[in-house]
Amino acid sequence: MRNLVILAHPHLGGSVVHARLAEMLAEAGDVSLHHADTLIAENAFDVDEEREACRHASRLVLQFPLYWFAPPASLKVWLDTVLDPAWALAEPHPLAGKTLQVVASYASPRWGPSAPAELMLPLHDTAQLCGMVWAEPLLLDVGDTPLAVVGPFAERYRQLLESPA
Fold this sequence. Notes:
44% of the residues lie in helices and 19% in strands. By secondary structure, the chain is α/β, with parallel strands linked by helices. Strand 1 (3-7), helix 1 (17-27) and strand 2 form a beta-alpha-beta unit.
């Protein structure tokens, strides 16, 4: 498997952007989609399975909306549990050389143009600590017209997943 997508969205059924992106992922080849919120809610979170999926992926994609300057809590739970330092920093580093790709949306014009990039710093530092390659985040400002921008964004995302990690 080339792409492991960890989707964190507590209200996916009501999401215009991430529901469409999840549909695109279901049609994409060489993608394994893990919805963190569903795994946690259904008590189906198997840390060993998540780590095994990480080992077999060449690209780990974290997909989420930004809420109040942060990813959803389910992503934090996934990261804290799966990337426990005893595993993620063990020698040899199990994630070394893998690409970490962030795909995120936001919709707040009051944030200012640099805020989304600055909010990626903890994930960037996580990638570095784990020996991963940090890819430029794919960020979508949905503004007031999410339907108009989600199609082209989904196409860019699909192309990214088809490219070498």
